[in-house]
Amino acid sequence: MITGIGLDMVHIQRMERWMQNPGLLQRFFHPGELAAVLERKSNATASLAARFAAKEAFGKALGTGLAEIVLKDIMVVSGQKGRPEIQAFGSALVALKKNGANRVHLSLTHEHDNATAIVVLEST
Fold first, then answer.
1. Distance from C-alpha of 74 to C-alpha of 26, rounded to nearest angstrom
2. pLDDT score at 82
């Protein structure tokens, strides 16, 4: 059963500004997530924008927003064959359990000026 759906879009230019302030990146991204993206170098800005959109979409899918969630507790990783996945820790995991979901589906895309993410929460 689907317990929530969230969609978000982020202007990639926003991440370009954030890239100039490592403190912002460290505040909003899990250290492992940030290291993986910055290590690749190519398309890092678009990848970070998509990941930030995923965090926002996750909050929307929960139906509660991100008010009580530490954004670093939501980590977007590349799973099998590069498929994006969300790993929830700490405050994000608590919110996910409250929602009743035990599966998180994620799709990311970016083109030109925008990055978009959709999150579907499912209880199986």
1. 13
2. 85
Tell me if residue 72 is catalytic: no
Residue 118: CB partners within 8 Å, gap ≥ 6? 5, 6, 7, 57, 106, 107
Please confirm, yes or no, whether 110 is among the known catalytic residues.
yes
pLDDT digits (tens, 9 = 90+) for 28-49: 999 999 999 988 777 899 999 9
Of the residues 60, 81, 98, 112, only one is catalytic, namely 60
What's the mean pLDDT in 102-121?
96
**Distance from C-alpha of 29 to C-alpha of 26, rounded to nearest angstrom:** 6
Q: Please report, for the domain that includes residue 106, its CATH number.
A: 3.90.470.20
Q: What does the pLDDT average to over 91-98?
A: 96
Number of domains in the chain: 1
